Amino acid sequence: MGYDEEFWNKYADENESRGNEEFTKFLTNLVRSLHCTSVLEIGCGTGIDLRKFDDSFEIHGIDLNEHALELAKGNIPKAKFYKESITKLPFEDSSVDFIFTHKLLNYLDDETVDNGVSEMFRVAKRYVLNCELFGETEEKIDDEMKFRNMLKRWLNYKVRVVSNVNMHEDIEPEQVRFTLLKKL
């Protein structure tokens, strides 16, 4: 799937209405409980999932959409945001404690997801979390999206599965699959 700037600009403008306070609280508490200090969201959009991280965290966001990144910079001035692809992360090997995606990989084609998993593994120092709409066979949802089975994509990497369950609807109403991995 190619990058559709008009679609993603509209998505960014509507992003505030998609903010989920429970998810951001849950995510921040999880990262803190794992004793991680650096965080990277891939497909960060306007940064709504990064806003609960306080000054004790080193916060990074990656997105291809310049408009969304400008909004993110205004929303979280202390964070560092980069216009870059999941397939080319601008970080050293094993340099970020906690890397996550939240309903991004459902929009990407299979090759991009596979290359993105390789990059996440390369950059991750400790943990990777994928929160994606789940489908065992990764069938299409619509013209823009596919369900994802992220666990099967991580089986050839040196990781330990910490969790692979649907999130509770009180935290994430769409009940995305919560796949948390520890890099070995």
In short:
With 184 residues, the chain is an alpha/beta fold. The protein is built from five helices and seven strands. The protein is globular and about 40 Å long.
Keywords:
Rossmann fold, globular
What does this structure look like?
- The protein is of the alpha/beta class.
- It has one domain: 3-Layer(aba) Sandwich (Rossmann fold).
- The chain has five helices and seven strands.
- Strands 3-2-1-4-5-7-6 form a seven-stranded mixed beta sheet.
- Helix 1 packs parallel to helix 3.
Radius of gyration of CA atoms, rounded to a whole number: 15 Å
Q: What structural class do the secondary elements suggest? A: alpha/beta
Average pLDDT taken over every residue? 92
Q: In total, how many beta strands?
A: 7
Q: What name does CATH use for the topology? A: Rossmann fold
| Terminal CA distance | 32 Å
**H/E series:** HHEEHEEHEHEE
> Main β-sheet: number of strands, strand sense, barrel status?
7 strands, mixed
Number of helices: 5
Strands ordered across the widest β-sheet: 3-2-1-4-5-7-6
Share of β-strand residues: 25-35%
- Report the CATH C-level class: Alpha Beta
Provide the number of structural domains.
Answer: 1
Helix content: 25-40%
- What is the approximate shape? globular
Residue windows where pLDDT falls under 50 for at least 5 positions: none
Say what oligomer this is: single chain
